[in-house]
Amino acid sequence: MTIQIEIPTTCPSCASDLELVNSQLFCRNKDCPAQSTKKVEAFIKKMRIKGLGPASISKLGFVHPLEIYESSLEYYVEVLGEKIGQKIFNEIENSKTTTFATFLSALSIPLVGETLSKKIMLAGVGSLDELVHNLNDLNLGPKVTENIDKWALSEAYLDATDIEEHLLIMSVGISGSEQVHKGNVCITGKLNDFSNRAKAKECLEGYGYTVTTTVSGKTDYLVCEDGSTSSKSKKAESLGIPIVTIDSLIN
Predict the structure, then answer these.
(1) pLDDT digits (tens, 9 = 90+) for 136-159
(2) Rounded distance, CA 144 to CA 150, Å?
């Protein structure tokens, strides 16, 4: 017995026309509720916010990641109850201490995943404002550049009257007032992903490391990416200090 399946033509969530691409159906409506909810769920997972699952997101009515940070403790308690609301609010507050790369990869921008987000941060970009306004200088490729540009325009970061307010909220979401110290780092030799040590220092400090100019008993890591032998590498070996790459420290 043969059953004929009729291919749907409209999105079951927003009723927009569906596009068939390589045997897959896509809804192109950026305001589609189903897509918005999935983006919020993806953001929560990337930012490691525990306890805020699909059921809670539905109750809270969130359709944009920003709403997670805009909502007050009172709102979480009112909707989810005192115990669960307080617990989730604490998780959200903890998520504010993270890296720009983690935050960027959580925004569901097509083709901008963890690897590319780290490369963008390694290029010295540390905020959405810097990314949007220096996009054409980053050599990310035409498709990625186009995707970020479209995302920025759809989010109204370029022409909205409340741009500063939005960027401020985003900044709160990617940096904390306190950061765990991860160790003392010294750098020697040529670097793989940085044009100079100043940019490498800025990146490592963003991850919680202290960058020093000399190797001593207080040095936890020596960054040497070109395999060269120097007085610093010799001293690090004599002191038993691990010789690493920047990528290994921030991954």
Answers:
(1) 888 899 999 999 988 887 765 444
(2) 10
